[in-house]
Structures are given as C-alpha cells and as structure tokens.
Specification:
Strand order of the largest sheet of chain C: 1-2
Largest interface: A-B, 25 and 30 residues
Number of strands of chain C: 2
CATH superfamily of chain B: Cytochrome-c3 Hydrogenase, chain B
Number of domains of chain B: 1
Chains: A alpha+beta (196), B alpha+beta (391), C mainly alpha (354)
Largest sheet of chain C: 2 strands, antiparallel
CATH topology of chain B: Cytochrome-c3 Hydrogenase, chain B
Strand order of the largest sheet of chain B: 1-2-3
Order of helices and strands of chain B: HEEEHHHHHEEHHHHHHEEEHHHH
Number of helices of chain B: 16
Number of domains of chain C: 1
Helix content of chain C: 55-70%
Distance between the termini of chain C: 31 Å
CATH architecture of chain B: Orthogonal Bundle
Structural class of chain C: mainly alpha
Oligomer: heterotrimer
Distance between the termini of chain B: 22 Å
Structural class of chain B: alpha+beta
Number of strands of chain B: 8
Chain lengths: 196, 391, 354
C-alpha cells in the first residue's frame, strides 16, 4: 500500500498540483475584473425585469382580477358604483369605466414579485417596472396607495354608492312585501312564491 | 433509523481510538444553527470523542414555512411562486415538477417547443445549482477562490434567466400548460456564448480544486456511502450515483423530451479513493455540469418551430378527482410532488418529496467515525438546501 | 559598517546612552505598524484581483485608505470581555503573542548598518523566541472558556511545535554552509551579485556550487512550507478555519485585542519571510553586486525581498484548500522531516569534503 513509489509520487503531486493552482490564480490577477462599481455604474435591466409594481389608474376599471390572482393577498381594492349621470371617462382601449376605484393599496413589502397580477388585467394597467431601489425607513411607507381620487372624493363616491345600494335594497324589499297583497294564483304558483 | 440494515461503525474499533486506555469523556458540540458552513439554518448536535464523531443528530425545522399547508388555500397556478421558494437555488426544477404533476393530473399536453424550452431551462438551472454546490464545497474545505469563479459563471446564467422571465432567482416561469414568456431573440446566441465560457471554467475549476492534492486528501475515503445503504435510505441524485448506482430519472423514468438527447450518466468509480466517498460525489457534480452543457448544445441545435407558449394553458384549471405522483431529476435528486385533488380550484393536498431532506437523513449513518473537519466535508457533499429540507 | 552603526552614531550625537537604545528598539515597531497597513491593503487587493474582483475602491484613491479605516474601526470598537473568562490570561494573551513576533525583529538584518541587537546567535535566537507565541495562543484558547477556541488553540500549538523541527533543521543546513549563526554575517557572505546567493549555490567553487544547488532548492521549499505553518496561514490555518471553528482561538476577542492578534500574525509573516530572504536570497545584498549596494540601498533590497515572500504567502492562501489537522501532522513528520534529514546529511557531506 505505502510503497516508496507511491510516497514519492504523492510528494511530487502535492507540489505540482499546488503550482498549477497558483498559476491559475496569478493569471486572474492580470485578467479582466467583473466588478461593477454600483452606484456609479448601474446595470441595465432587461425589459422584462420584474421589480416594483406600477398601476396606471386612468386605465383601471376596478375588476379585482389582480387582487384575486395575487398569491400573497397584497392588493386591496375597493370600488364604488358610479351614479347614473357621472362620467368616469374611458380607458385607453376605448372601454367606458363604470366603477369608481376608492381604494387600491399594494403592500409592496408583502409582494413576492411573481407577476401573477399582471397577466389577468384586461386593460394592462398594472405593470412591473425596473425600479429596485425603493427601500424605506418606515415600514408603513411601503404600503403604496395608487388611487387618483382625493380622500374626500373617495368617501363621497362610496357614500353615494352605499346610498344607492340601500335604496335599491329597500325598493326590492318593498316589492317583495307588496307581492302577497296581489291576488293569489293557484296553489303551485303560491308554492313557487313561498319558495322564493 | 433502527430498521435499516447497516453495519454501524463501532467507534472503539477504529485504530485511533482503540489504543486509548485513558478515560475520555464524550463532548456534545452544537454546530449551528448559525454557522458559516451549515448551508442554511441547520443545527447538528455532534457527540464527539476527542476529534472523532460518535453521533450526529440533525435538528431541522428552522426554515419551515408551511408550504404544504399554504397550497391548500391557493389555486393551482398561484402555488407556483411558492414552489420556487422551496429549493431556492434550483427554482426551475421545482416549477417544472409541479407543472408536470398537475399536467399529468389534468391530462394537458404541451407543444414540443415548450418541452424543449423547459429542458433548456432545467439544464441551465442544473449547471447553476452545481456551480453553487461546487463553490460552497470548496469554501467548506478552505479554498476561497473557486467559489468566486463559480459565482461569476452563475451570473451569466442568472442574466439569461432575467432576460427571459424577469427574475434572477425565483422565476415563476414554468406554468401549468406552458411557460410565462417565450424566449427572447437574444437568448440563443447568449446561451451559446455561455456554454463556451462555461467549458473553460469547468477545466479551470478542475485544475484549481478537483485535482489539487490537498482537496483530494480532504475528500477521498471520507463519508463512504455503500450502494445498498444508499438505496435502502432512499438517496437520490449525486448521492446515489456517487455510490455506483446508475439511476437517473432522466434516463430511467423519462419525462418531457429527455429521451431525445444523448448524455452520459456519470457514476462514482472511486477515482481517488473508494466508491461512494465525498470526492466521488463532488466529481460527479463536475461531470454532470459538463453533461448538462452537452444537453444544452443539443437542445439549442434542434430547437423546433416556435409556437405560442401559452396556448395550452387552460383558462380555469379543472382537475378531476384523484391523486397523482410525479417526479423529476432535480440537481439534488428526485423531487416528487404528490397531489390529491377533490375537484376544487385548490389542491386538496400537495406533498413534496424533497431530495435534500432524504439525503440529509443519511448524514448520521455515513459520518460516524470521522473527524469534525470531515463532518463538514461530508455535509457539504450532501449538497442540501435548507429551504427544501424544511419547506 | 558594523551593524551597531546607528546606535553608535546616535550615542555620539546625543551623548546619552538610553535614548539611542530606545530609538533602535522602537524602529522595528514603527516598521511593523507601517508594514501592517501595507500588508492589510495588499492582502485585500491581491486576493480581490485573484478572484476577479477589485477589492476596496471607495476609501481613498482606489481604496488605499482602507487599512486606516479598518484600524480606526477596530480602535473605536467596544472592548467586550465575556464574563466567564479567566481575566488575567485573557488580557495577557494577545500581548504575549505579539511579543513573540516582535522580539524576532531584533535579530533581522535590515541593512549592514542596522540590526536591532547585535547578537552572534541571531538565527538561533529567532527560532527560540518565536516559540513564545505558542504560550500566548494556549493562554488565549484556554482563557476564552469556549470549546471552539480551545480546539483551535490546541491544534495551533501542536502544529507550531511540530513544524519547528523541519524549520530548525533547514536553518541548520544553511548555518553549516555559512559557518555562522549571525544573520548579518550570512547576508555578508552572499555578496557579489545574484549568482552568489545561497539558493543558487553560494559563493563557492563550481563543484561545491553544483552539488549544493538541488539541496538548497529543496531546503528552501521545506523552509517556506514550515514558515506557512508557523504563521498559521493556509493551507495550515486549521486553527482559525472559518468554516469549522468560526475564528479559532481569537473568537472571543474584539476591538484592540483582536487588532493585536492580527498585527502579531502579520509581523510573524514578515519575520519568517525576512529569514527566508536572508538565508537563501542574500538579505540586504543587491542582485547586481556593488551597483545599488551599500547600507542605505540594503534596506530597500531587504524589504523588497521580504515583501515578495509575503506576497507569495498571500498568493498561497487564496489558491489552496485547508489541510486537516492529522494530515498536517503527517505532512510534517512523514514528508518534510525525512527530506530535511536527507538534506542535513547531504549538506554535511558536502561541507566536509569540499
């Protein structure tokens, strides 16, 4: 096992492989260095880069698809139905908007940057940008509010929508209560009215 | 562990310990959870007799994030970002395995172009993962420079991935029924550039680390895993192939289009020591790196006609009631997903058979009788990622 | 030009006896401090270049101010002393290690006109006094009350005392050829240009030189390897192996005491490199013979040669993995020692017959 030949071969291979390793490292001293001096030189991110989210509120129709697609539930959306006379404008695709978006918060600290919210958006208003330097000192500053309405407007629209919904519910209840006052048809129809 | 037929090494019979007539106490040493060379948060309770390891008890769970419970409350496509985060050094593999499993459950066929892209991404990921494994193994042994050479190459791979799907580490790329993006036009030339550069780095790392006499002394004849013990314990990947067992899921249980490529399955031969020692496992990773580059070359050469990569993605995933188990060859071993579906939008149960977890359980068996420095070498050769061990 | 020149001249100038002694003793300390700054920066930059990086670039011009920043950081750090340590040993240990390294500078021939202490047993003194560091390391490991530190300290001690044997024997061979233990004399013998350095055979007739050449090369390699082990550098840095023992025997030290350990390691590196340069490469002799020779230029040559060997030590650190402790021992006792003994016999035969 330990023959004199092996002994000298071991000693020689020890020295020789060390010298080969040393030659590789010294050749790198004179080679190209790969360090980029960030923040003086920045790397140009590819166009598909997935970093901070951006929402173009002019195009948002409040469909809630992005909030439903998010695996970590970091998007919170609240909408309010527009009143009959109000004109909310159109999206860039020509579609008429019908909902006021009164709350659109993304907790960017929770976001896992998977881009699952980008795909279902029908107007392509939510996008991932290439901004990656957005650290904050206060964790609450990482909850981004995207709505373009002022808080008073948001409250106003919400109240209008709630009032309209309450009126509609009251009207429906009144209609349902008024139904039995009308002449009752034959038994099956009465049975149908009861099961309603 | 008690019903695995294994000859435990009797510590008292080891020559170094036999001659001691002094009464020596056994010392319990805690390696971790914060330690530079446990690859993540792992606590190893090591019982030592002087420098010789008498027993090792791994304590896990420091990185448990309830992945399997989470899947029960999310729809099938929403699970994919979570699968990324299990084995965060080989995310494409995790996505791939899950997508394959659900596709088998729902009987979804994808186009050949999509399959080729998936294989290209999986093999690129294999190279990236082996680069980390080799680099950090060198770091554990004490060689600081190969680590940086490996990471320099890994940067090129991560740039390729970023160009394709936008993220560098956690991709959410391989979806159920297709991919999230098609490869851009610059991908193929840049990939070929990378393959050429990587072959040079492969030679360099071999000369700097693998054939270095000191490295050989540190890793040969250490942590010998006999083939029958490996099979009984459920090892897979380089751990199993290092012991001489020629078992690779890409060849023995082919999935996707792997049966179209020609590549070797490197098997441990005991090049500088015995079959199944740490050097074999390390060298197999180096050889697998080279074989992955060959597969990449073949795949890029024979890329079929471009099709829409999102064509087969269903609008709403309708799973039949049933269960399916599907497995892929992760860089670490056999990654299996077992999904039980009750017909709803969420998986009823998604169980992951993680290779690193099973490989880690072999650690107590193979490290008895060696020294503390060898324990670190053996742990490095199992190539565990705690995200996968703990899920 | 006697080595006492500086001390005599100062005594004549000032008339006092004490101040010149203080100056002569303090000069190596000043040198160590300046050299440590250069060495720290050198290690950072050279290791970075070998790893395809650029190292520190922001402090000062291309990072040259980095060592000052590091020293300032170490000085202003909180000096924590764990409560369960053995206070006296814990506080004394860094200083003992440093003294072991610093005292060796007394016998280093910086030039033909300056040597810290004119000892005629120069090299013998150096080998003896650098063993003092062993005591310091043991104190540090024991007093830290930490399993990892104790492991590191014991490994380090066994390594240093084992490797002193091949080192001493290699030095013995050179002493046999030179015929004197005084390092200044050994430098002086190698005068006349690069071909007269001991590594190329020495200033001897042709047959003796040809026979000595292979022996000297082997001896130099052996001495260089043992010097790596003496200073706990990779591949023999099992004592401070970061991936196993965090930092070995200086795990529990912070701030200034850690800085003193650090300083002691670099001083030791310089001392052993200087000895290698003197014994084999001519010390303060210029390679061109009389051109650029003399006492003042001698300092430059001496420092340059030692810096080159320090650079090779840094180079080896970043190219090689670490040896395990029993392999370390087997390299010493099974490989270095037999080769050294063969070289001793060969040298003795050559010296006696030629």
């Amino acid at each position: 096992m330990s023959s004199p030949g092996k002994y000298f071969k071991d000693a020689w291979s020890g020295v020789w492989t060390v010298l080969i390793g040393m030659r590789i490292t010294i050749s790198h001293v004179f080679g190209k260095k790969v360090t980029r001096q960030y923040p003086l030189e920045r790397y140009q991110l590819p166009e598909r880069a997935r970093n901070r989210l951006y929402v173009n509120m002019d195009d948002c129709i409040g469909c809630d698809q992005c909030a439903r697609a998010c695996p970590v539930n970091c998007i919170a959306i609240e909408t309010a139905k527009a009143m009959p006379g109000e004109d909310l404008g159109v999206t860039s695709g020509g579609k008429k908007k019908a909902l006021w978006v009164t709350k659109f918060d993304i907790d960017i600290a929770k976001c896992c940057y998977c881009s699952l919210c980008v795909w279902p958006c029908p107007t392509e208003c939510i996008k991932m940008t290439d901004v990656y330097e957005f650290s904050e000192n206060n964790r609450n500053n990482l909850v981004y509010n995207y709505i373009t309405l002022t808080p008073e407007e948001a409250v106003l629209h919400k109240e209008n929508a709630d009032k309209a919904a309450a009126e509609a519910a009251a009207k429906k209840a009144a209609a349902a209560a008024a139904k039995p006052a009308a002449p009752k048809p034959a038994a099956p129809a009465a049975g149908a009215a009861e099961t309603k | 562990m008690s019903n695995i037929p294994v000859d435990f090494i009797d510590v008292k019979k080891i020559p170094q310990v036999e001659t001691q007539r002094l009464r020596t106490d056994e010392m319990v040493l805690n390696v971790g959870p914060q330690h530079p060379s446990t690859h993540g948060v792992l606590r190893l309770e090591v019982v030592l007799d002087g420098e010789i390891v008498v027993d090792v008890v791994p304590h896990l769970g420091y990185l448990h994030r309830c992945f399997e419970k989470h899947t029960e409350s999310m729809s099938y496509p929403q699970v994919i970002p979570y699968t990324d985060r299990m084995d965060y050094l080989a995310s494409m593999g995790n996505n791939f395995g899950y997508a394959l499993t659900v596709e088998r459950l729902c009987n979804i066929q994808v186009s050949e172009y999509v399959e080729y892209i998936r294989v290209i991404m999986a093999e690129l990921q294999r190279v990236a993962s082996h680069l980390v494994a080799v680099g950090t193994y060198g770091l554990d042994i004490g060689a600081f420079t190969p680590f940086l050479y490996c990471f320099r190459d890994r940067e090129l791979i991560l740039e390729l991935f970023e160009m394709t799907c936008g993220a560098r580490l956690l991709y959410n790329y391989i979806w159920i029924g297709g991919l999230s993006h098609d490869i851009p036009n610059e991908f193929v030339p840049k990939c070929r550039e990378f393959i050429k550069k990587s072959r040079e780095t492969h030679k360099e790392i071999n000369n700097l680390l693998t054939y270095n006499k000191i490295f050989i002394e540190r890793t040969a004849n250490i942590g010998i895993l006999p083939a029958d013990v490996a099979i009984n314990a459920g090892a897979s990947g380089p751990m199993l192939r290092g012991s001489g067992v020629k078992w690779d899921l890409r060849r023995d249980d082919p999935y996707s289009v792997y049966n179209k490529f020609e590549f070797d399955i490197p098997v441990g031969k005991g090049w500088y020591g015995t079959v199944g020692d740490c050097f074999d496992r390390h060298f197999i990773r180096m050889l697998e790196w080279e074989q992955s580059l060959n597969i990449l070359d073949q795949a890029l050469d024979s890329l079929p006609e471009r099709t829409d990569v999102q064509a087969a993605i269903p609008k709403r995933i309708k799973t039949p009631v049933g269960e399916v188990y599907s497995r892929i060859e992760n860089p670490r071993g056999e990654l299996g997903y077992y999904i039980i579906s009750n017909g709803g939008a969420n998986p009823f149960r998604c169980k992951v058979r993680s290779p690193a977890f099973v490989n880690l359980s072999i650690l107590p068996i193979i490290s008895k009788g060696y020294m503390v420095a060898d324990l670190i070498a053996i742990l490095g050769s199992t190539d565990i990622v705690l995200g996968e061990v703990d899920r | 030009m006697t080595p006492n020149f500086l001390q005599d001249w100062l005594t004549k100038l000032l008339g006092n006896d004490a101040i010149p002694i203080v100056v002569v003793c303090a000069l190596p300390l000043v040198f160590i401090l300046v050299y440590a700054l250069i060495a720290i920066l050198g290690e950072m930059k050279i290791s970075a270049w070998m790893q395809d990086r650029v190292g520190p670039m922001r402090t000062g011009w291309k990072g040259t101010f980095q060592p000052f920043a590091d020293i300032l950081k170490l000085m202003q750090k909180e000096d924590t002393t764990p409560s369960a340590v053995d206070k006296f040993l814990y506080n004394m240990a860094p200083y003992i290690v440093f003294i072991g390294a610093y005292a060796a500078f007394a016998a280093l021939p910086f030039s033909s006109a300056y040597m810290g202490a004119t000892l005629n047993v120069g090299i013998f003194y150096i080998v003896a006094i650098s063993s003092l560091a062993v005591v310091g390391i043991l104190m540090a490991g024991w007093a830290s009350n930490n399993k990892y530190s104790l492991y590191g300290a014991i490994r380090s001690v066994s390594q240093i005392i084992s490797y002193e044997i091949p080192a001493g024997l290699a030095i013995l061979c050179v002493v046999m050829i030179a015929g004197t233990l005084d390092l200044n004399q050994i430098s002086a013998i190698q005068s006349g240009g690069i071909q007269n350095w001991f590594i190329f055979g020495g200033p001897f007739p042709m047959e003796k030189r040809l026979l000595l050449l292979p022996v000297m090369i082997v001896l130099f390699i052996i001495y260089y390897i043992t010097s790596l082990a003496e200073t706990n550098r990779t591949p023999f840095d099992i004592a401070e192996g970061e991936s196993e023992l965090v930092a070995g025997y200086h795990t529990e030290y912070s701030a200034m005491k850690f800085a003193i350990f650090f300083l002691a390691e670099y001083a030791n590196m310089f001392a052993v490199s200087a000895v290698a340069a003197t014994l084999f490469f001519g010390g303060w002799q210029s390679p061109f013979g009389e051109v650029l020779g003399g006492p003042v230029w001698g300092i430059m040559w001496f420092v340059l040669k030692s810096f080159f060997f320090v650079f090779v030590q840094i180079w080896l650190r970043w190219s090689l993995p670490r040896l395990r402790v029993d392999q370390l021992m087997s390299v010493c006792w099974k490989f270095l020692l037999p080769f050294t003994l063969v070289c001793v016999v060969a040298t003795a035969l050559i010296v006696l017959n030629f």
